[in-house]
Amino acid sequence: MQLILASTSTYRAEQLKRLGIPFAQEDPQVDEDILKQAGLPPAELAKRLALEKALQVQQRFPTALIIGGDQLVSFEGDVLGKPGSNERAVQQLMRLQGTSHELITAIAVLGPAFEEVHCNHTRLTMRALDEAALRRYVEYDEPWNCAGAYKIESRGIALFESIESTDHSAITGIPLMELTSLLRRAGLELP
């Protein structure tokens, strides 16, 4: 069975390579802004976006097994996505510093006779840092394309006091432990 990652994310592709199974990558071509305006709670929004991405690719590859994913930050009732620029990244980090927030990572796996969606919740507590420290971090890591404006897999780890998660791989885009369970249930043979 053909496996397709419905994402252009290099981070998610690198993670999926860890499983040692061949896969293709396809752009899901989903207008996320429309769904973000629907007013859904953060976890429901992440699941809906992951499912929508998988559904869009499934229309083009109906016999394949499709993986869709989405990630967002929930903080004080707001959904924080990718900041889009280094300046907005600093602004997001200034809001998050010295507090805890939730990183929500959703995955959807769709096949010809299979559909499951999973949501992972990670609680992160950021150190109290001044703007100068956050600017130095942003200059180095350029996390403008990451939810929450940090890259845990790089220097972003130094921003945090604690991380609580049932699957730490979810932090970089795909909860691999849950994904392997979903793929097995969908009929894919894994080690």
From TrEMBL:
It comes from the Bacteria. GO terms for molecular function: nucleoside triphosphate diphosphatase activity. GO terms for cellular component: cytoplasm. It is found in: Cytoplasm. The keyword Cytoplasm applies. Keywords: Cytoplasm, Hydrolase, Nucleotide metabolism. Belongs to the Maf family. YceF subfamily. The lineage of its organism: Bacteria, Pseudomonadati, Planctomycetota, Planctomycetia, Planctomycetales. The active site is at D70 (proton acceptor). Transmembrane segments: none annotated. HAMAP family: Maf. Its main location: cytoplasm. InterPro entries: ITPase-like_fam, Maf-like. Signal peptide: none annotated. Its cofactor is a divalent metal cation. Pfam families: Maf. It catalyses: N(7)-methyl-GTP + H2O = N(7)-methyl-GMP + diphosphate + H(+). The record marks Y11, Q71, E153 as: Important for substrate specificity. This is 7-methyl-GTP pyrophosphatase. Its EC number is 3.6.1.-. Nucleoside triphosphate pyrophosphatase that hydrolyzes 7-methyl-GTP (m(7)GTP). May have a dual role in cell division arrest and in preventing the incorporation of modified nucleotides into cellular nucleic acids. GO terms for biological process: nucleotide metabolic process.
